[in-house]
Specification:
transferase, glycosyltransferase
């Protein structure tokens, strides 16, 4: 129900909407923003850009208050964890950027029904993915080498870890240092503003 509400409320406000969780990240690897990526890869009849996922294993929780986070090193998940699954199979746990005006029904992982004439574009994992942080998880993104990161904790994910291992061997991945530093600085500034620390 919340997804349908999001789709309908954003129809007149946004051309494109990312339907991702707060612990998932879309990261464009090349010197391109997500907006530029969408403009360069999306066609008018694309109602959905669908991204495959990779999971990054996270080995402990992130502090849940700003002061402890600061004392713990002020790191963001993608700076701390790097053990990453291979890309999930097609249509397995995908996430999307959608055009709300083209969508009639939205599910957690993909559009369920488009308006007539709209289509899905399956983004090749060589171009972009979703990085999912799962106290052990991760992914990449489209055309301009984007990354989507989503981080979750290992406890309770044992069965999913076994499934993720069937995608292939986990590997070490990292975000380009210049991108990571800029992102970390931005997050640190915002945390300081919000929590006045």
């Amino acid at each position: 129900m919340q997804l349908q509400d999001c789709v309908f409320r954003t129809r007149e406000r946004s051309t494109w909407v990312a339907t991702v969780d707060l612990d998932e990240r879309i990261y464009v690897i090349e010197d391109t923003t997500i907006s530029q990526f969408i403009r360069s890869s999306a066609k008018r009849n694309y109602g959905e850009l669908r991204f495959r996922c990779r999971w990054v294993l996270r080995y402990h929780e992130i502090p849940n208050d700003a002061k402890t986070w600061r004392l713990d090193g002020s790191y963001i998940p993608m700076a701390k964890w790097h053990n990453t699954s291979q890309v999930a199979p097609v249509n397995h746990t995908t996430k999307s950027i959608i055009q709300p005006i083209q969508v009639e029904s939205m599910g957690v992982h993909q559009v369920l029904r488009f308006l007539p004439g709209a289509h899905v574009h399956l983004v090749p994992p060589e171009q972009a993915v979703i990085r999912q942080d799962t106290n052990f998880i991760s992914l990449q993104i489209l055309g301009k080498n984007c990354f989507y990161r989503h981080y979750r904790i290992i406890e309770g994910w044992t069965n999913f870890l076994k499934e993720a291992e069937t995608f292939g061997s986990f590997e070490y991945t990292e975000v380009a240092s210049n991108k990571l530093q800029a992102l970390n600085d931005s997050v640190t500034r915002k945390i300081s503003q919000i929590f006045n620390i």
